[in-house]
Every structure is written in C-alpha cells, then in structure tokens.
Design goal:
Largest sheet: 8 strands, mixed, barrel
Helix content: 40-55%
Length: 777
C-alpha cells in the first residue's frame, strides 16, 4: 500500500547541536538531494529503475547510520535500538513494495510490505516511550503539560483525518482497515510528538529538532496519502516526505549514539506558558469547528479532554511551588524555611524534644581539592546516611553549605545523645564519589526542649553554641549547658569584633628579623634581610592582641583565607615601599591549611605584579599539618609557587607526624625548627641531638635551617656551632612595627663591628622577660 520513501532535503541541514555532520550523513544528504530533484523532474508513475535505486540507496544509507550508532553504544541504549529498528523496518517495507510492484504505477491491495510498514510505528513509539521515562523525576505540572499537548495534537489530527476516519476515502474491505489503521497510528505518533513538544526541560538528545521534524514529515506524508489514495501514483512528491522523515530520524539516532562532546544531550526548553497556550487554543478551534460542521467524535473528545486537563496543572503548580519553597534543591531534603515552618508548632505542645545542628568537618578542603561537583555529590550521600538513622517522626533539613539540622520529637536526653552517636556513626564508613573514597566527620551541637527553651531561635542559638564547643573540643557532639553560654557569647562577640577589625583596618603588621648566625649578620649573602610578618590586632578596648588571642577563632570561623589575603596584601605593599627606599628584604608569611586554594599562585602573582615586587622577596611558611592534610593538592600548589620564584619554608618542623619523604618530593627551601626544641636543647641532651640531626638532615637536602625562639646568647652560640643558618627570637629583636625595621637593620652591623645605639637591648638573663606564646600571622 505504500510507496518507497525518499529522503527529505532538510535531513542534511544543520543539527541542533551546532556540530558538523559526519561524512556518512553528508553523503546521505547528497543522495537525497539528487533523488528529490529526480522526483520533481519526473512524472509520477513513469520513472524507472534509476530513480527507484536512488530512493533505496538513500534509505540503506540511513539504515547504515543507525547501525553504526548502535555499535558505538554497544547496543545498550534502547532509544537508539528502537529508532534504528524503525528505520530498518521501513526500508525493508520499501524494498518489498518495489519487489511486488512489478511495473505497476501503484499497488492497490494489501501486501507483505504493509507488515514492515506497520512495524515502524510500535518501534518508533517505543523509542519515544524510553525518552518519556526520563520525565519521572520532573514535577507533575510538566507531565500534565505533556498530556494536554498530546490531547490537543490528537484532536487536530482527528479533525484533519475526518474523511478517512468516517469513510475510508473510497477503500473497501481489508483495504479500508489498512487505510484507516495508518492514520490511527499516525494519530498516536503525532500525539506523542505533541506531548514531547509540550514538555519543557526534557533531554531529547542532540539534533532533537530533526527527530520532531522527521516524525511530523512522516505523519504528514501518511495523511496526504490517506486523503489522496485514489489518485496516488508511485513517484509522487509525497514519497520524499516519507524518506525525509526516515533520514531525519536516522540523523537524530546518529547524534544520540555519539560519544564525547557530541553525545551530550541538549535539553529542549520553551517558555512554560507557550505550550499550554498553543494546546488550549488548538482544542478551542477544534470544538468551534465541531459546532459548525460534523467532525469525528474522537476529535471532540480529545479537544474537550485537553481543555479540562489544562486547568489541572494550575492546581498542581501551586502545590509544587509550595513544596519547592521548603525543599533543598540539591539533596531533596527540607530546607531552612521548612524548619522555621514545621518546628514552632511542635514546640508549643510541651513535648520533650531535641534540636541538632550538624556541621561537616573539613568539607571546604574536599571542595577545593576535588571540585564542587564532588562536594555536591558528597552532601547528597551524607544526607541519605543521616536520613537512614532517623525515625519517620524526626525532621532532617539542610540549612545550607555543609550544615544540617535535625529535630527529634518526643525524645529524652539519653535518646538525644544516642541519636547523635548514630548520626556520627553513619559517617564511619568512607563515602565513594566517582573514583574518590572520602572520609568525613561531623560535629553536632544539641539543645533540648523544653529544658533549654521553647523558642526556635533560642534553641538554634544554643545548639550553635554547643556545635562550636564540639568542634573546638573535637568531641564529635556536645549537649548544651548553661556553662557553655558565657564563653560562647564572648566568643561570638569577639568574632563579630574581629570581622569589624578586618573591615576597619584595626589589624597591624609587625616584622621580626632573622639573623644569619655565621657572623651574626642581618643582611644575607645576596644583600637581603630576612623578616617574618606577624599580625597584631589593635583592639579598641583591650589594646594590642597577639595572634594566639584571635587566630584560633578566625580559623574556627573560616576567616583565615580572608585574613591571610589581607596579610599578604599588606606585606607585599610594605616590601614595595622598602624597595623604593633602597632596602632589599625577603618577608615570610605564614599560611594555614585552609589558605592554600588551587588558585593561590595566580592570586599571589597578581599581587606581586600589581606592586612590582619580585617573587624572590616572598617566602611562604607552611606547617607540617597543613602539608599533610591534602598532600597531593598542596604539593601541586607549592610546585607552581616555587616555579614562580617564591621560596617555601616548613614551619614548626618536627612537631607533626608526617613522613620525611616529603623533604624529597616537595619544593622546599627551608626548615624552621619549632621553639620547643630550641628552648629545651641546652638542658635536654635528646633535644640537643634532635636539633643537630635535623640540621644535618636539612643540609644534606640543600635546605636552610631557621631556629625560632632563641632567647639567649648561649643558645645562639650552640646553634652556631651546630651549623644552623638563621635564627630569630627575643635575643635578637622583638617583632617590630614597619617603621622600626630600617633603623634596626642600620643599627646592627655584622658581628665584630661596633654597634650604634639600636632598638636591641639585651637584658640580663635573670631579668629577661619570659617570651609569650608563639606568633602566627
């Protein structure tokens, strides 16, 4: 009953993906063009074997395209297999049709070719169903949009096919059944296409426009064929529409089966209101036509269904928007708004309960090292593990970032503590994300109701205080008590004051000189003076605060990256000013583990270029703990910094628990001995031996050694004897404000040269003040 199909000229057009078409598709398009021109120049029913061969060759090329796509995907993608099967069955139908034609202008009886032609529809519909399955995660309004669009498209198709559906266009018997069956199947196909077009956000794959146009072209050819059955002759231009659909479908199958960049599906998007407006307008037009003339009952029912269902998404949308407002987009858990809505009514009942605040430890390091995609997947898995430890009456929410909250309704103090232990235990096993196996811990703060209050804001504040206590104590979880409140309140106040200090320029830089022990020279072999940058806080009430008074709080509150950036900016600007005065210096800046992002080399490079300071004027001091926290990522960052000319120093060497292998692998210039070794070396032979061994080890690796915390001449002389390179401490100079550095350098010539009056005043050993805690910038 059907003619051989011929490829449409549009099949070789531009793909929606914007990528170039493969050579096989280009060849198919070229043969298609020749065939279309042949159809235009040939009278229907009179063309011969050459024209017939062009059509079959085009279809066979389309089949080859689909088979290659199936092989590329190892026959694992069902939409490709069904699409390839549909193209293949149609081509087989055309081959059978030509074999049975036997010189006739057209076949008027049902033939075996119709079996292959009819097989096209279930295969193509199966491919569409596979894609429709991807809608299962979308909201119900989108699904209803699809149904409304499908009903509207079906009503329009039923209207167009009125002559066929009501009279069979002159056909009789089995012929009538087949004539009517094709339009019915096309009605189903167009209904599915209408549903696809009405559903925004569905991933139809690359070149999805060709898929839609191909199905429409195929169905239009069927409709025209059904309406002109009595006058149809082989070689009619509608033959090109059939093959156009086949080739377009094959081009889509090819794109869907490609790997790498070309295989990334493109999400079909359209304005949310557009499809609904078109669908309802189409249904109204069909019903209006039905008022003036007789149309199939099916068309009327489909149009009425489309209008009825168009109102349903409005109801669902309102419900879904309300749900989305209290749902975390990433994890699917309730969000902070849900907590604020659902918990207050529970608190008014007077039932016992507990509010937990949970904060993941070192989550920022994972984000920086592996990327936000891995971090997001980790948060999803963590939320799932937490949910597994709770009962249906409990509420688990994600507050944002790496913070979660849990409310337990009707639990005692003992049950709350047990629940906290279960939540922590849920993270005992590493979490696998992609190729990474990640171990994370959580700190939990707990507040009980009504014991700690019945106001949600009050409970959250107290749970937050308890969570900070759990973090600082590294206890994992902590139950709020009144003893926590005073210290926590002071901590929160100090934290706010520190933020203000950073914003209002209350921080001041001091610089402590490093002395070359050989000759007790301030200036090094290359004419530079070595200094360490140390930050001070000029508190408006408490006066000048040393780093140990506020840096731990800054680290805990995640302010260290911002504070380190401020220190680097101040230090580099100060170095530039000294260079303008003719003073060559090298200044060391301390970095904590939280201050080594992957883009640190770019940040420092921009800063140095801005102030026209050479990289050799800067040294970065990093503790062993920071090096070992994320060794691979840290090594990569330090290698890039060292390649730029920035020197690297390992601070507090010997106090960590790391392998000495990093001395070989990391780009290190200097080891800095912790003051605990230096202060003990004169009274403890083992400490003396450790210092001597570390100095020998460092020199064997061509590294400098700096001793910090040198408080007397005897220690300095002992270090000089052991071959230590540099030293710093109160014996030489306290940390100096920037204005005092140049005068101090001028007042300290090499050993043996008479000194001028200087800032260095050595007190007798008996009266020398005890040094404060170690400085950290």
């Amino acid at each position: 009953m059907r003619t051989q199909a011929r490829p449409a000229s549009g099949a070789g057009g531009s793909a929606s993906s914007g990528k170039r078409f493969p050579g096989l598709i280009v060849l198919t398009g070229a043969v298609l063009t020749v065939y279309v021109l042949t159809l235009l120049l040939t009278t229907p029913g009179s063309y011969g074997a050459f024209e017939e061969s062009l059509g079959i060759i085009t279809e066979l090329l389309a089949v080859t395209v689909c088979v290659r796509a199936a092989f590329r995907t190892r026959f694992r993608q069902w939409q490709i297999l069904f699409g390839a099967g549909a193209v293949t069955m149609y081509t087989m139908g055309d081959v059978l049709y030509l074999l049975e034609l036997n010189g006739q202008p057209a076949l008027t009886d049902v033939t075996t070719a119709d079996v292959a032609y009819l097989a096209f529809y279930p295969l193509m519909l199966s491919a569409l169903v596979v894609m429709m399955r991807k809608l299962k995660g979308l909201a119900w309004p989108l699904l209803l949009d699809s149904v409304v669009g499908a009903a509207a498209a079906g009503s329009l198709m039923a209207l167009i096919l009125t002559p066929v559906l009501t009279g069979g266009a002159g056909a009789t018997g089995l012929e009538l059944v087949i004539v009517v069956l094709y339009p019915i199947l096309n009605l189903v196909l167009i209904t599915a296409v209408g549903g696809l077009l009405a559903t925004g956000g569905l991933d139809l794959g690359p070149r999805w426009q060709l898929l839609v146009l191909g199905l429409v072209a195929y169905s239009v050819a069927d409709i025209v064929f059904a309406l002109t059955l009595e006058s149809y002759l082989i070689g009619n231009i509608i033959d090109a529409a059939w093959v156009a659909g086949i080739v377009a479908i094959a081009a889509w199958v090819d794109a869907a089966g490609r790997t790498g960049q070309e295989s990334r599906g493109q999400v079909y998007e359209r304005p949310a209101f557009l499809a609904l407006m078109i669908s309802t307008t189409t249904a109204l037009v069909v019903l209006l036509i039905g008022c003036r003339m007789q149309i199939p009952l099916l068309a009327q029912l489909l149009a009425a269904s489309a209008l009825a269902m168009a109102a349903v998404p409005l109801v669902f949308r309102n419900r879904v928007l309300s749900t989305l407002a209290i749902t975390d987009e990433l994890t699917g858990l309730p969000n902070r708004r849900a907590l604020l809505i659902q918990i207050p009514p529970r608190l008014t009942r007077g039932r016992p309960g507990a509010l937990f605040l949970l904060d993941l430890d070192c989550f920022k390091d994972i984000n920086d090292a592996l990327g936000h995609d891995v971090g997001d997947q980790l948060l999803i898995r963590v939320g799932q593990r937490f949910a597994e430890q709770l009962t249906p009456g409990d509420l688990l929410v994600r507050l944002g970032g790496d913070e979660f909250a849990v409310f337990l309704d009707g639990c005692t103090k003992e049950e709350a503590v047990a629940a906290a232990c279960r939540l922590r235990g849920a993270l005992d096993e590493p979490i696998t994300v992609g190729l990474s196996s990640l171990q994370v811990d959580v700190s939990i703060g707990m507040a009980l109701t009504p014991a700690n209050g019945t106001d949600l804001n009050l409970l959250m504040r107290k749970a937050d205080v308890a969570m900070f206590r759990a973090k600082s104590d590294r206890s994992g979880h902590h139950l709020y008590s009144s003893l926590d409140d005073d210290g926590a309140a002071r901590k929160l106040q100090t934290l706010q004051e520190l933020r203000t200090a950073m914003a209002e320029d209350q921080l001041e830089m001091h610089y402590q000189p490093k002395v070359h022990l050989a000759g007790e020279r301030v200036t090094g072999p290359v004419g530079r003076t070595s200094l360490e940058a140390l930050v001070r806080w000029n508190h408006p009430v408490l006066g000048q605060l040393s780093p140990d008074k506020f840096l731990p709080l800054a680290e805990e509150a995640r302010l260290m990256p911002r504070l380190t950036t401020l220190v680097l900016e101040r230090t580099v600007a100060r170095v530039a000013a000294w260079r303008a005065e003719g003073l060559e210096v090298n200044v060391a800046v301390n970095l904590s583990g939280s201050c080594i992002p992957v883009d640190l080399p770019q940040q420092i490079d921009i800063l140095l270029r801005q102030h026209r300071v050479p990289a050799t004027s800067l040294t970065l001091e990093i503790t062993e703990d920071a090096l070992m926290a994320t060794p691979r990522r840290t090594a990569e960052v330090l290698t890039r910094l060292r390649a730029d000319g920035i020197e690297i120093s390992i601070d507090d060497f010997g106090t960590g628990y790391s392998s000495l292998a990093y001395l070989r692998d990391l780009p290190v210039d200097e080891l800095k001995l912790d003051r605990s070794f230096i202060s003990a070396m004169r009274r403890d032979r083992r400490a003396h031996g450790l210092v001597a061994s570390i100095i020998d080890l460092a020199h064997s690796q061509d590294l400098r050694v700096v001793a910090e915390g040198v408080e007397n001449e005897e220690t300095a002389e002992e270090l000089r004897t052991l071959g230590c390179d540099l030293a710093q401490g109160y014996h030489f100079a306290r940390p100096l404000p920037a204005a005092g550095v140049a005068p101090w350098i001028a007042a300290h010539p090499p050993r043996g040269v008479p000194r001028a009056d200087s800032l260095l005043v050595r007190a007798p050993a008996a009266t020398r003040p005890v040094p404060p805690a170690p400085d950290r910038p």
